[in-house]
Amino acid sequence: MSTPGGYPDEPFAAAPPPGPGVTPPFTAPPVDRNRGGLWIGLGVGALVLVLCCVGGLAGFGLLTVGGIRQLETQATEEVSGYLDALEAGDYDAAYSHLCSDLKRNLTSTEFAARQRDEPQIMSYRIQQPQVGNTVIVPAEVRYEDGTSALRRYEVRQEPGGQELRVCGNI
Questions:
Q1: Measured between alpha carbons, how far apart are the two ends of the chain, in Å?
Q2: What is the distance between the alpha carbons of residues 10 and 114, in angstroms, rounded to a whole number?
Q3: Domain range for residue 124?
Q4: What is the C-alpha separation between 153 and 93, in angstroms, rounded?
Q5: Where is the composition biased (Pro residues) (predicted)?
Q6: In 3-state terms, what secondary structure has residue 166?
Q7: Helix, strand, coil shares, percent, the chain, to 5
Q8: Given a cut of 70, is residue 21 above it in pLDDT?
């Protein structure tokens, strides 16, 4: 059945007119027959990945070496402070450089009495610290009686803190 103008009852979709600028609804993507660009891109990506990994490892190595050097410097400064105080006869200052384990077993008065019984330090020369499970700082110590000895000071980090302290003479 038709309507009074001769049109059918149901509308229909007309095909687009032919001509320029008209495209079908879904076009096929262009095909690149040359895969050289793909391989160059993958190669550059792999090179960047390798460089990032090498850079990360180098950075980690530098961080580790820097941390060890900082530990050596702090340990050397702590032993120097301890020996400077002993050399000056300032036993309270020397006692402050001891770790809490030693201080628990030895009062400052007992420490001062023991140090007065020892020969007085005239000079010292600190050698290269040895970093392992513990930090050992060797020092060549000369006494007022003319003797000298190689002393090895164990240095540890205090629990709950960042400070290093002298924890013994090995």
A1: 114
A2: 115
A3: 62-169
A4: 17
A5: 14-28
A6: strand
A7: 45, 20, 35
A8: no
